[in-house]
Amino acid sequence: MGRGASGSLQGQEIAGALSRMPDETRTKLLGAGKSLLRFTLSRGPALALLPVAAWTAEKAIDMHKSGEIHRLWEEAQTSEYSFTVWHALCLQAAVVAVVALFFYFLRPGKGSTYLVDFYCLRPPTRMESSRADMSQGIRIPENGYSEQSVQFMDKVMEISGLGDRTFLPDEVQKGKYQKVEATMAGARVETETALNVSIQHVLDRCGLKPHQIDGLIVNCSAFNPTPSLSAAVVNHFKFKSSIRTFNLSGMGCAASVIGVDLAMEMLANNRNMRIMIAGTENILMNLYNGNQRSMLITNCIFRLGGVALLLSNHPADRRRAKYRLTHMVRTHLGGVDEAYNAVIQKEDDEGKVGVKIGKELMKVAGMALKVNITRLGPKVLPISEQLIFAANFVLRKVFGLSMKPYVPDFTTAFEHFCIHPGGKAVIEEVSKQLKLRPEQSLPMLVPFERYGNTSSSSTWYAWSYVETFQGVKKGDRVWQLAFGSGFKCCSAVWVALRKNDEKHDAWMDVESY
């Protein structure tokens, strides 16, 4: 029997022995092995240098006892050294090169992206809406819903994890008593108010004036008037004429993180720049009044929200910034028809426009997440997790062992998880796949219960929850993960530059979770 076959049999015997162990024993054994591997890899270089240091120290002591060091010193003092002009120039050039390299590697990177501050919109109390209010409104005959559609929406709101104190704009609130009239004027007031209020809060918190903002990125996926929303914001705040503006549309719930990526590219190529990012989603213009079930879901879970944040590479902002962006990974599966059509705005059979959420959404989201974390993992995971993953792959694919694929433990890479809270079922599935502890899942579950799906601002509500109720210590790493139609999955990794445990306005009326 060859060595390969013998090794395969031994591997199967080991796998068999592990499978016969009690689950608790196997879990403890694997945990101890992972801990030992992490310790060895993290302390390995230092441990490997100990014998070298001991040998060097021993030789130095022997040379001192024998008088060799004293002899070499005296010889160096009595010797005469002469250099040609060429040698002197080479030596000078070498010194200059070493000094230049030293300062090159220690210089502050001009491409650093700092998150100075952010603000999550807390709409006024008059806009609070319960599930009963929504249920009352969809039963008004003028709104055009069949009894089957009403029952379906009631069921979705009941099982989705949505709370009784989410927010809807004033024009939609009127739908409790009369038909909702979707007008351009009403939509403008809703969207521009959410954007302007959020931006003003960030300016006030940072002590800045509008003329100190150099870039503006506005996102609203499904409401895009002319002039653009970014132009409306410029007009409201009277930003300077040299401001660089961008208006992102149709990017779905990932739009805010995509805006961060765009800002990162701008900051990498421009010094002393401050960029404001603001995002919301319009509710009024996107209410669907048809009866196709896959297009009714958005009526049930999307609610009013908004966010504004300031990114900068200005030296004056470095000392007060909350976080620094370390990694950005974007995944786009638009080339796959199933992924492209998973979330799509279209007309139903009666010509009524709405956003269809297909049954394949969970499958597509899983595909996008897998591709995204495959690229993200090598950038953030400790080497121990990467080796365990590689060993699992080799044992399964090369030796043919029947083992489950190893899912890397991302809790070893991050202290906090701000993942898009799209709904209770999605949150629970993502938490299970990423092996999150219950307290690590709360920043997704609680914001959805309190605010619903606020589209691109959802991950920021999760982040504000983390700062308010869990606190972020200096050096903590935050994983911001968003999904969007198209289909997109975007990861942003941040590191805390200071302690962040303020109580955000969005949670002022919440004591604790």
Automatic annotation (TrEMBL):
Residues 112-398 form the FAE domain. It holds the Pfam family FAE1_CUT1_RppA. It is an enzyme of class 2 (transferase). Keywords: Acyltransferase, Membrane, Transferase, Transmembrane, Transmembrane helix. CDD domains: CHS_like. Residues 415-494 form the Beta-ketoacyl-[acyl-carrier-protein] synthase III C-terminal domain. Belongs to the thiolase-like superfamily. Chalcone/stilbene synthases family. This is 3-ketoacyl-CoA synthase. It comes from Coccomyxa subellipsoidea.
